[in-house]
Specification:
Elements lengths: L6 E6 L15 H14 L5 H7 L2 E12 L8 E12 L2 E10 L2 E14 L10 H11 L5
Antiparallel strand pairs: 1-3, 2-5, 3-4, 4-5
Length: 141
């Protein structure tokens, strides 16, 4: 499964992210999705701040997480992330979270680009769409 995710980032589970049982709270996974998404976009001409400088916001329109195993305080979690479904103003990020070889969660978030002033939907900027398409293209073996 990891071979389909070309980009990975890591987080360490902080104490404040755990519940009374010492397990990462379910809402924390959405924060980790965001960490991975911002790290992913940072590879492309200015990253998310670069989008904002161009007057574009990328709003989250949907989120889904599936919990398969616990993440505990001080563990290192690897997050695989990829961008799919890039069409017009919309795109989707998919995630998988692993602890070592164990898949502990997966999920996705849906997004739409809008004009930062009017919030009217606008196409994903061409430079970014092209860069993501190239980055996600299957490598020839």
């Amino acid at each position: 499964m990891t071979e389909t995710f070309k980009f990975h980032t890591e987080v360490r589970v902080r104490f404040a992210e755990t519940d009374a049982q010492g397990i990462a709270h379910h809402a924390t996974y959405l924060v980790w999705f965001e960490v991975a998404r911002v790290d992913y976009l940072a590879r492309f001409d200015g990253g998310y701040p670069g989008l904002q400088e161009r007057g574009v916001e990328a709003l989250t329109t949907e989120a889904h997480a599936r919990y398969l195993g616990p993440a505990r305080f001080n563990e290192t979690i690897a997050i695989g992330v990829r961008c799919t479904g890039l069409r017009g103003a919309r795109f989707r990020f998919e995630y998988h979270l692993t602890r070592g070889d164990d898949l502990i969660a997966d999920g996705w978030t849906g997004h739409a680009c809008v004009d930062a002033r009017t919030f009217v939907p606008t196409r994903v900027p061409a430079y970014l769409a092209e860069a993501i398409t190239a980055a996600e293209r299957p490598s020839s073996s």
